[in-house]
Amino acid sequence: MIEALKPGFTLDARLDADTEQLMWLGLCELRIMNDRRWPWLVMVPQRAGIEELHDLTPLDQAMLTFETNMVASALKRVTGCIKINSGALGNIVRQLHVHIIARNEGDPAWPGPVWGHGLREPYTSEEIHGFTAKIKAAL
Amino acid sequence: MIEALKPGFTLDARLDADTEQLMWLGLCELRIMNDRRWPWLVMVPQRAGIEELHDLTPLDQAMLTFETNMVASALKRVTGCIKINSGALGNIVRQLHVHIIARNEGDPAWPGPVWGHGLREPYTSEEIHGFTAKIKAAL
């Protein structure tokens, strides 16, 4: 019952539907976007009722910076991508979440942003398991 | 000659063309995107040769977190927007820069991202002066 340690926090239903759990970090749950078009991770700080980065406490902001750094470096190492895109938008899902995406020239949305581009293409369970294992090993 | 204090740093030519100088913070130059469709600020860490957030030193990352926090809060207060979008993409301009954008339901790209959406609509000089003054006052 990890949820019992995070008072009032419940994962947004749409985030829950679009992403799969990867691992717990100190502040965030690390999830993977179930979209095989891009290696795409999502970090969700386990804090109830927060919509903006600047609404986190200073300590939580420092933690998030540290964890984002770790996740982005690992994603770049694992994928060998040429650029990391990171962003906190929240226009549709208001619960604070940070996207970390591996981009390459010629990928489906290049050089535009991935958000809102076409339709999500789910991984096979074998693919998502393989990608997840690589990220876990790199962290 | 502020540039003399930032060894080797030169602002990317495209960033220079699309944005106007607003003020200097500790680590970043704060600039405004010359696009009246959205209140849109751009923070450029004055570090040469850096393309990814995770390539900044830990101290610079902490500074950037602090400055981003300050800028995002000020932009939200000044505009009364319902959501801040922040992101570091860099697919086109590789020099590290962080976007902080005020979003509202019904704005030109809502709820999608602003990057790559249609054509930039420059402010009149009166408009950009007015917006710039409000942000400076809020910081």
UniProtKB/TrEMBL annotation, chains A, B:
Pfam families registered for this protein in UniProt: HIT
Under what name is this protein listed? HIT domain-containing protein
Name all HIT domain ranges: 41-110
Q: Which organism is it from?
A: Oryzicola mucosus
> What Gene3D superfamilies does the record point to?
HIT-like (3.30.428.10)
A GO term for molecular function = catalytic activity
Q: Note the superkingdom of the native organism.
A: Bacteria
Entry's InterPro entries?
HIT-like (IPR011146), HIT-like_sf (IPR036265), HIT_Hint (IPR026026)
